[in-house]
Amino acid sequence: MRLGVVSDIHGNRIALEAVLDDMPSVDRLVCAGDVVGYNPWPADCVATVRERSVPTVMGNHDRAVAQDSAFRFNAMAKAGVDHARESLDDDALSWLDGLPEARTVADGRVKLVHGHPEDPDRYTYPEEFSPRMLGDEALLVTGHTHVQDHRVFDEGVVMNPGSVGQPRDGDPRAGYAVVNLSEGQGGDAVTVEERRVEYDIDAVIEAVEAAGLPTRIGTRLLKGQ
């Protein structure tokens, strides 16, 4: 089975379109959360994910938008949450609110979480990836940090596909991954291809300003911050 893996789209329609255009043929897409937040197009991104029936887990921004909370968010994050809440209709908000914190796909061989299996809001950076994070699955997909990387262990693979809509690993290109699942057990059965694609960041900056969002939401994208 071949999976296209995305995370942290954060309302960036232009980046999402670039990723989907660049992605090779896969059997299905999966998403590790935060479809909305920050950028100007939350409704478009939710609609795209829903139209493609992408198995998705709830990110902290998804929860904040759906449940009308923005606890401990900075001004940029809060502005993005408020914008998304104002932009989404009741049906889209209900979809966000119904997302689970964790889910499995591929007959239980792949588990999706946003932050950490024990805490969906925990930032888990690649140097913290551990086989202790794995259960029965061969592949654990995380998001939240916006840092693309993976680690292969005898027990399986722990990965972050990177952020589609707001990379924070110093590479401004939209991040995603393609995963091949073969027969067998553990890390030997999983191959991860990390991919990056350029997109029109200037157009996002213009849209951020037109939407009245904080300017740095757009300009930070130029440096992958």
State the gist of this model.
The chain is an alpha/beta fold. The protein contains seven helices and nine strands; from the N terminus they run βαβααααβββββββαα. It has one domain (2-223): 4-Layer Sandwich (Purple Acid Phosphatase, chain A, domain 2), CATH 3.60.21.10.
Number of domains: 1
CATH homologous superfamily title: Metallo-dependent phosphatases
CATH class: Alpha Beta
- State the distance separating the first and last CA atoms: 33 Å
Largest β sheet strand count, sense and barrel closure: 5 strands, mixed
> Strand tally, please?
9
Overall geometry: globular
- SSE series: EHEHHHHEEEEEEEHH
Low-confidence stretches: none
Helix coverage percent: 25-40%
Share of residues in strands: 15-25%
Structural class by SSE content: alpha/beta
Counting H and I runs of at least 4 residues, what is the number of helices? 7
Instruction: Look at the structure and give the mean pLDDT.
Output: 96
CATH topology: Purple Acid Phosphatase, chain A, domain 2
Rg calculated over all Cα atoms: 16 Å
Taking strands numbered 1, 2, ... along the chain, how are they ordered across the largest sheet? 3-4-5-7-6
> What is the annotated CATH architecture?
4-Layer Sandwich
Explained architecture:
The chain has one domain: Purple Acid Phosphatase, chain A, domain 2 (4-Layer Sandwich), CATH 3.60.21.10. Helix content is 28%, strand content 20%. It has 7 helices and 9 strands, in the order βαβααααβββββββαα. A hairpin with an 8-residue loop joins strand 8 and strand 9. The radius of gyration is 16 Å and the shape is globular. The mean pLDDT is 96.
